C-alpha cells in the first residue's frame, strides 16, 4: 500500500440470497482522486458504494480506509471516520429547515454519543460552518426554507452539503445528477469538480456519461457485479468490453 | 383544596409523567410503543413489593425507575431489528407478556394484586411531591427536546438511513429513548402505587397503553405542552362523564382514530399553526 492510498478494496463481494450483487471486485482510490463508477443498470454500482459506506455488509473480501479495516464498522462509525455518502434518492429530514439539516450533520462529534448530545444545548455555534457548506453548493439563500417546498435540484445539493458538513475525506455520490435538467446537471458537475480540487476525494456513480467523461480523469466500470475496466476515462470508454456491456453483444464490431 | 381535588390532581400529575415519558419514545424519537403500561406496572410492582418489605421512598423510587428502565432496555434491544407496525406489535406483545406474568405469579398477588401498601411517609407533602415529579419530568423532557439529543431523535424518527449516513448511531439513540422513557414510566408507577395503596394487574393492561398513546397523539406527537394538556383532559373526562369510564377503550380508541384521520399533528401544534399564521400574515 502506498502512502497516498485512501481506500483499498480487495476481492469484495456480497450476495443477497441467491443473487450475487458484487463479486470479487478490487480497486484502490488515491487521496485526491475523482473517480467515476459506471455500469449498466443492475451492475452493482450502488451496492459497491453502500459496501464502502457500510450500509451493506460484505460476504467476502476486505475494505480498508486510511489503512484501517472497515469491514466490521457500522455506517455511522464510517461516516465519523470521514466517509460521506449522498443518497441516490434524496433523503432530507423534512421536519427541519435546510440549514438545520446541515447543522445536525456538522455536529457529528456531538451526536457521537447520546449523553454528549443531551449535554449540548447550543445549536448556533455550528451555524457558520453549515452555512459555508450550503454556500459551497450555492443554496445558502434557501437556508431557512423547508426541504418539502424545494425542487429536486436543490435537494440534490442539500444532500451534498449535508455530506460535506461532516468534513469527509472521501465523498461517495450516488447519481448526483439524476433527474436534473441539462444546465443544472452541468452546474452541479462543475461544483463536484471544484470540490475535488479543494482536496476532497470523490467516487461518484452517474449515468450521464458525457458529464462523467468531462469531470472524471479515471473511470471504473462494473458489469454483472464484476469490474470489467479501470483506468483513464478516454481509454476505458474505448475498451471493447465496456462498449459491449453498454450497447450489447456485437456492438463493438459494428 | 378538598381531598377529591387533591386526589384528582395527583392522578393528573401521574398521567402527565406517563404521557411525557411515552412522548419521548414515540413523539421525539418516532418509535411506536403499544406496551407502555408494562413499564408503568414494573415501577408500581417494584414499589409495592419493596414498600411492603419496609423499604422507604428514598430507595423505592430509584429502584422502580431502574427496574422499569432495565425492562425498557430489554424490550428496546429486542425491538432494534423491527420498525413501525412490527415494532407496535412487538411492544404490544411485551405488554401482554408482562400482564400474563403478573396475573399468574403468586408473589405478585396474581389476579388480586397487592394491597395495603404503606404510604410514602411524606404525610401531607405527598401531593406536592407527586406534582413536583411531574414538573421535573417536564423540565427533563424540555432539555431533551431542545438539546442535540432531541435534534438527533428527530432525525432518527424521520429517516434512519439518512441519520446513519451523517454519523448518528441509530440503535444507540433508539435505546436511549427507550431507557429514558421507561425510567420515567417507572417513576410514575412508583408514585401510583403509593397514591392508591393497592395495585392490580388490570391497571397496567392494554387499555392503559392505548390511553397513554391517545394522550400523546391527541396532544401532538413531540409536543410537550400537548402531552400535558391531553393527559389532563383525558384524566378529567372520565371523572366528569361517568359513561366514558365504562367504555374507556372504545372512547380512547375512537379519539385516536378521529385524531389520526383529521388532525394528525395533534391539538397543540394545530392550535399553534392557527395562532401564528395571522400574525405572520400581518407582519408582511
Structural commentary:
Chain A has 254 residues and is α/β, with parallel strands linked by helices. Chain A folds into two domains: 169 residues, 3-Layer(aba) Sandwich (Rossmann fold), CATH 3.40.50.300; 73 residues, no CATH class. Chain A is 36% helix and 25% strand. Chain A has ten helices and ten strands. Chain A has a six-stranded mixed beta sheet, sandwiched between helices. In chain A, strands 2-1-4-5 form a four-stranded antiparallel beta sheet, covered by helices on one side. In chain A, helix 5 packs across helix 6. The longest helix of chain A has 16 residues. In chain A, 44% of the residues are buried. The mean pLDDT of chain A is 89. By secondary structure, chain B is mainly alpha-helical. Chain B has one domain. Helix content of chain B is 77%, strand content 0%. Chain B is built from 13 helices and no strands. The N and C termini of chain B lie far apart (48 Å). The chains are: A alpha/beta (254), B mainly alpha (284).
Amino acid at each position: 500500500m502506498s502512502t497516498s492510498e485512501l481506500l483499498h478494496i480487495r476481492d469484495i463481494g456480497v450476495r443477497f440470497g441467491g443473487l450475487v450483487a458484487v463479486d470479487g471486485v478490487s480497486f484502490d482510490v488515491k487521496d485526491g482522486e475523482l473517480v467515476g463508477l459506471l455500469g449498466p443498470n443492475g451492475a452493482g454500482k450502488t451496492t459497491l458504494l453502500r459496501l464502502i459506506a457500510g450500509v451493506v455488509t460484505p460476504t467476502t473480501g476486505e475494505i480498508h480506509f486510511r489503512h484501517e479495516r472497515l469491514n466490521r464498522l457500522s455506517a455511522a462509525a464510517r461516516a465519523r471516520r470521514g466517509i460521506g455518502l449522498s443518497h441516490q434518492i434524496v433523503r432530507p429530514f423534512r421536519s427541519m429547515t435546510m440549514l438545520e439539516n446541515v447543522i445536525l450533520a456538522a455536529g457529528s462529534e456531538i451526536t457521537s454519543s447520546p449523553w454528549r448530545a443531551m449535554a449540548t444545548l447550543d445549536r448556533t455555534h455550528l451555524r457558520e460552518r453549515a452555512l459555508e457548506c450550503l454556500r459551497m453548493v450555492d443554496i445558502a439563500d434557501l437556508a431557512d426554507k423547508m426541504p418539502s417546498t424545494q425542487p429536486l435540484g436543490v435537494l440534490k445539493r442539500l444532500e451534498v452539503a449535508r455530506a460535506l458538513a461532516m468534513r469527509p475525506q472521501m465523498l461517495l455520490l450516488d447519481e448526483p445528477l439524476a433527474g436534473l435538467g441539462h444546465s443544472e446537471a452541468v452546474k452541479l458537475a462543475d461544483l463536484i469538480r471544484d470540490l475535488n480540487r479543494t482536496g476532497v476525494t470523490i467516487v461518484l456513480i452517474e449515468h450521464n456519461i458525457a458529464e462523467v467523461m468531462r469531470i472524471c480523469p479515471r473511470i471504473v466500470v462494473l458489469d454483472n457485479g464484476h469490474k470489467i475496466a479501470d483506468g483513464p476515462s478516454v481509454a476505458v470508454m474505448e475498451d471493447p468490453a465496456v462498449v459491449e456491456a453498454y450497447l450489447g453483444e456485437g456492438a463493438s464490431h459494428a | 383544596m378538598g381531598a377529591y381535588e387533591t386526589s384528582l390532581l395527583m392522578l393528573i400529575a401521574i398521567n402527565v409523567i406517563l404521557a411525557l415519558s411515552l412522548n419521548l419514545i414515540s413523539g421525539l424519537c418516532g418509535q411506536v410503543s403499544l406496551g407502555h403500561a408494562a413499564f408503568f406496572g414494573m415501577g408500581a410492582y417494584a414499589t409495592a413489593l419493596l414498600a411492603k418489605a419496609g423499604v422507604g421512598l428514598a430507595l423505592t423510587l430509584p429502584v422502580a425507575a431502574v427496574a422499569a428502565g432495565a425492562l425498557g432496555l430489554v424490550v428496546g434491544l429486542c425491538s432494534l431489528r423491527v420498525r413501525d407496525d412490527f415494532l407496535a406489535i412487538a411492544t404490544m406483545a411485551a405488554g401482554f407478556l408482562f400482564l400474563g406474568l403478573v396475573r399468574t405469579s403468586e408473589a405478585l398477588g396474581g389476579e388480586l394484586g397487592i394491597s395495603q401498601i404503606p404510604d410514602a411517609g411524606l404525610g401531607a407533602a405527598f401531593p406536592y411531591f407527586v406534582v413536583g415529579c411531574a414538573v421535573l419530568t417536564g423540565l427533563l423532557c424540555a432539555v431533551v427536546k431542545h438539546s442535540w439529543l432531541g435534534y438527533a431523535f428527530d432525525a432518527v424518527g424521520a429517516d434512519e438511513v439518512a441519520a446513519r449516513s451523517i454519523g448518528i448511531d441509530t440503535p444507540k439513540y433508539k435505546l436511549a429513548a427507550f431507557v429514558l422513557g421507561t425510567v420515567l414510566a417507572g417513576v410514575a408507577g412508583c408514585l401510583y402505587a403509593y397514591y392508591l395503596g393497592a395495585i392490580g394487574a388490570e391497571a397496567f393492561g392494554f387499555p392503559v397503553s392505548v390511553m397513554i398513546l391517545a394522550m400523546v397523539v391527541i396532544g401532538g406527537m413531540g409536543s410537550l405542552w400537548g402531552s400535558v394538556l391531553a393527559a389532563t383532559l383525558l384524566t378529567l373526562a372520565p371523572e366528569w362523564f361517568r359513561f366514558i369510564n365504562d367504555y374507556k377503550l372504545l372512547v380512547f380508541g375512537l379519539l385516536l382514530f378521529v385524531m389520526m384521520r383529521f388532525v394528525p399533528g395533534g391539538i397543540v401544534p394545530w392550535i399553534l399553526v392557527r395562532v401564528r399564521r395571522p400574525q405572520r400574515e400581518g407582519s408582511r
